[in-house]
Write a structure and sequence with these properties.
The chain has 397 residues and is an alpha+beta fold. It has 12 helices and 13 strands. It folds into 2 domains: 2-223 and 375-396, Ribosomal Protein S5, domain 2 (2-Layer Sandwich), CATH 3.30.230.10; 227-371, GHMP kinase, C-terminal domain (Alpha-Beta Plaits), CATH 3.30.70. Strands 1, 2, 3, 4, 5, 6, 7, 8 and 13 form a 9-stranded mixed β-sheet that branches. Strands 10-11-9-12 form a 4-stranded antiparallel β-sheet. Helix 2 crosses helix 3, helix 3 runs parallel beside helix 4 and helix 5 packs antiparallel against helix 6 (204-211). The chain is globular, with a radius of gyration of 21 Å. Bound molecules: adenosine-5'-diphosphate, (3R)-3-hydroxy-3-methyl-5-(phosphonooxy)pentanoic acid (PMV) and magnesium ion (MG). Catalyzes the phosphorylation of mevalonate to mevalonate 5-phosphate, a key step in isoprenoid and cholesterol biosynthesis. It is found in: Cytoplasm; Peroxisome.
């Protein structure tokens, strides 16, 4: 079925609570956003694999025999349960001409592609000649899980191309999703992509990209949150670039340096996530405005904690101050160090008040957008069902 080509997508995410702490076994609550990464896969005839990633300026192609030769060097070691080894990544870097230790977006994206392509073909059979194009509505490296959305799309496309998962889109349907079992496989390979990009990911981002909706995540255990109130959220990108890999490594260093000081902060973040989950459950049964002050206070406390563990940034402090001047509460989301913040809007926050806050945030050089949460996870699309903007990006890039 994929032989006619396919288009699929995965959502970005916002972490309500638990970023960083989740890497150390604590609870995180995360929701899928209505901003997505799209991948188009087309067969091509020349015995080559071609990858176009316009978001990070990559246009590369390799002939299949050279990929097969590379793979045969360490085929036995590829498995979705094993982290990519230093040796494997060094070999792939050398093959692709990527400098050791390079953390540029294009280097990490190319390395993740090569790793997943070789590992999946080693396990499930050769990849066919193909042309892959990835285009995203998400900002890259801003805390909204663009790396996970990219990894989920690659996993779904490569597993489809090797025949390890089906192509569930039937003639005449506009979208389709895979079975639970297939989604579990896609998620585990997406986690490998995240491992290449992040070093030590928790797995929460790829879980949201795969399953969508809203979920609680702890140490690999994914619990969908069935009853979540329709929260209104304002996302603000400070446009300050940062790397998840570097920030995650910084928190680890702080824990090693001051364990007795930092570990209780992570425990407190865990308690915030749990408290927030209880409040959301009560709210969905009884959607009364009385719960909002609690959610707002939890945002404030967690933002302080995230500053304590070293992932704040002056731009994020400014974001919180500006929204506070409009009576709104914000925290960073994702890895921090710049990137995005989320601001909770109450059901009765007027459009005028939101516009005034947005105006002040934009005056700081930030970008804002109001989003809805709980979007579907990884999805196959028929071309005719795509928005004009997406179709244009996938045909013109
Ligand atoms: N559209 C995309 N195309 C290719 N690579 C991408 C894309 N989006 C993200 N990436 C990869 O993910 C990395 C950003 O991941 P990360 O630092 O975790 O930030 P975040 O996940 O918050 O956006 C980029 O450096 C790049 O390697
Ligand atoms: C900081 C962390 O909790 C979330 C990172 O999210 P993002 O890559 O900044 O979108 C890391 C992780 O969970 O793997
Ligand atoms: Mg990421």
């Amino acid at each position: 079925m994929w032989e006619r080509g396919l288009v699929l997508s995965a959502p970005g995410k916002a972490i309500l609570h638990g970023e960083h702490a989740v890497v150390h076994g604590k609870v995180a609550l995360a929701v899928a956003l209505d901003l997505r990464t799209f991948l188009r896969l087309r067969p091509c005839a020349e015995g080559r694999v071609c990858v176009r990633l316009p978001g990070v300026g990559v246009l590369r192609s390799w002939d299949i025999p050279s990929l097969q030769a590379l793979r045969s060097g360490f085929a036995a070691d590829f498995d979705e349960s094993k982290p990519p080894s230093v040796e494997q990544l060094d070999t792939l870097r050398e093959f692709a001409g990527i400098a050791a230790g390079a953390t540029a977006p294009e280097s990490l994206a190319t390395l993740a592609f090569l790793y997943m392509c070789l590992a999946i073909s080693a396990k499930y059979g050769d990849v066919p000649s193909m042309d892959i194009l990835v285009w995203s509505e998400l900002p890259t490296g801003a805390g909204l899980g663009s790396s996970a959305a990219y990894s989920v799309c690659l996993a779904a496309a490569l597993l489809s191309a090797c025949g390890a998962v089906s192509c569930p889109l039937k003639e005449g349907e506009s979208t389709a999703r895979w079975t639970e079992e297939e989604l579990t496989l896609i998620n585990s390979w997406a986690f490998q992509g995240e491992r290449v990009i992040h070093g030590n990911p928790s797995g929460v981002d790829n879980a949201v990209g795969t399953w969508g909706g809203a979920l609680r995540y702890q140490s690999g255990k994914i619990t969908p949150l069935k009853r979540v109130p329709a929260l209104r959220i304002l996302l603000t990108n400070t446009n300050v670039p940062r790397s998840t890999k570097v920030l995650v490594a910084g928190v680890k260093e702080k824990i090693l340096k001051f364990p007795a000081i930092i570990k209780p902060v992570l425990d407190s973040i865990d308690a915030i996530s749990q408290e927030c989950q209880s409040v959301l459950e009560v709210m969905s049964a009884n959607p009364s405005p009385e719960h909002y002050p609690v959610l707002e206070e939890l945002f404030d406390i967690n933002q302080h904690h995230l500053n304590v563990i070293g992932v704040g940034h002056p731009s994020l402090d400014r974001l919180c101050r500006v929204t506070a001047s409009h009576g709104l509460h914000s925290k960073l989301t994702g890895a921090g160090g710049g990137g995005c913040g989320i601001t909770l809007l109450r059901p009765d926050t007027s459009a005028l008040a939101v516009e005034a806050a947005k105006r002040d945030l934009c005056a700081c050089g930030f970008e804002c957008w109001e989003t809805s949460i709980g979007a579907p996870g990884v999805t196959l699309h028929s071309s005719s069902s795509l928005k004009a903007e997406v179709l244009h990006a996938l045909t013109e890039s």
